[in-house]
Amino acid sequence: MRTREIIIGAIVGSVLLFVAGILVGLYGIPKSTSESKSNVASLATECSTTTYDAEWDTYRNKYLQKAAESSCYKATCDTEDLPRTYISYHLDGKSIKIDGKLDDPAWLEVPWTDSFMDIRGPDYPKPYFDTKVKVRWDDQRLYVGARMQETHFWGTVTRDETAVWKENAFELYIVPDGSLHNYKQLQINVMNVTWDLMLKKAYIDFATSCDRSRAFDSSWDSDMRKATFTDGIVNDINSTGTFWSAEWSLSFERLAQHTDRPAGKLKPDENEAWFFSFARPEYKYKIVNGKYVKDESAPTEWWSWQPTYAINNHLPSRIGLVQFKRKMNDETFKWEKWHLYRALFEVFEAEHKYKSVSGKFIDDMSLLQLAPKIMSSSCVDLSVTLNQGHFTVTAISKLDSNLPQAHIRDDRYVWFTN
Ligand SMILES: *[C@@H]1O[C@H](CO)[C@@H](O)[C@H](O)[C@H]1NC(C)=O
Ligand SMILES: *[C@@H]1O[C@H](CO)[C@@H](O)[C@H](O)[C@H]1NC(C)=O
Question: Are residues 89 and 57 in the same domain?
Answer without folding.
Answer: no
